[in-house]
Amino acid sequence: MTANSIAVNNNHAMAKNALAVMTASVFVALMAQVSIPLPFTPVPFTMQTFAVYMIAIALGPRLGAMAMAAYICEGACGLPVFSGGAAGAAKLLGPTGGYLLGFVPAAYVIGMLAGKDAGKLRAVAAFVCGAAVFYALGLVQLSRFVPSAFVLKAGLFPFMPGEVVKFFLAAGAVPVAKRLVSRLN
Question: How many domains does the chain have?
Answer without folding.
Answer: 1
